[in-house]
Design goal:
By secondary structure, this protein is an alpha+beta fold. The protein has two domains: about 120 residues, CBS-domain, CATH 3.10.580.10; about 80 residues, 2-Layer Sandwich (Uridine Diphospho-n-acetylenolpyruvylglucosamine Reductase, domain 3). About 30% of the residues lie in helices and about 30% in strands. A hairpin with a 1-residue loop joins strand 3 and strand 4. Helix 1 crosses helix 2 and helix 3 packs across helix 4.
Length: about 220
């Protein structure tokens, strides 16, 4: 919802030329029309109707004759129900009222769709875990994960150094260059192989970590 203080509105006494200028200044395609007070919304003015009248040489026509009736809804209205009603009425903008009937803002179909689509994306766009086990002794690891944290999680001993903090940094330090997908680093001291799996531009995104069984030592 666009709150009342941020809503661009037009007074019903303005001329057609003044209305055209206001549309040009605000960049909006629809504006609420008020009479005497901004709390008294009496209609909605569409830019298409304004310019159509201007091109038809009807510049003296009052804007009240071009506006259509506003659609008022309470602030407690459920957003999905409101979308259905707006689509059914073929209305693009709703005037939102509080429990006392005072104008508190506007809501457009575009606002609602953005909100609903955002909710859907949030629901399905769950972050992948930083460490995913994809096989026996094989893990897919986020390159931003700190080496020390990965050591703790998997009970391994990847080398730690002041020149890097993350798995991606460890790879670059050992390779000596920005890697390409598929490049491999074998860390014999930790019995681990790291494989670059995904890059985003020059940044390592995902790394495959393969654990190797330490060689058995013969007893003396």
């Amino acid at each position: 919802m666009t709150p009342r203080v941020d809503v661009a509105m037009i007074e019903d006494t303005l001329t057609l030329n003044e209305a055209m200028q206001l549309f040009n200044e605000t960049g909006f395609s629809r504006l609420p029309v008020y009479h005497d007070s901004v709390d008294n919304i009496i209609g909605i003015l569409n830019i298409k109707d304004v310019f159509s009248a201007a091109f038809s040489m009807k510049k003296e026509i009052p804007i009240k004759e071009l506006m259509y009736d506003p659609y008022f809804v309470p602030e407690t209205k459920k957003i999905d129900d409101l979308l259905k009603e707006l689509q059914l009425r073929k209305v693009q903008m709703a005037i939102i009222l509080d429990e006392y009937g005072s104008f508190i803002g506007i809501l457009t179909v575009e606002d609602i769709l953005e909100e609903l689509v955002g909710d859907i994306l949030d629901e399905f766009d769950r972050e992948e875990p930083e460490i995913q086990k994809i096989g026996e002794g094989i893990y897919l690891v986020d390159a931003k994960l700190w080496v020390e944290d990965l050591n703790d999680e998997l009970d391994i001993s990847l080398p730690v150094h002041e020149s890097y903090e993350t798995i991606g940094g460890l790879l670059i330090e050992r390779l000596g260059h920005i890697p390409h997908p598929g490049e491999t680093v074998h860390l014999a001291e930790a019995h681990v192989t790291l494989v670059v799996m995904q890059m985003l531009s020059r940044r390592i995104v995902k790394v495959k970590l393969i654990l190797h069984t330490p060689p058995a030592h013969d007893g003396e």
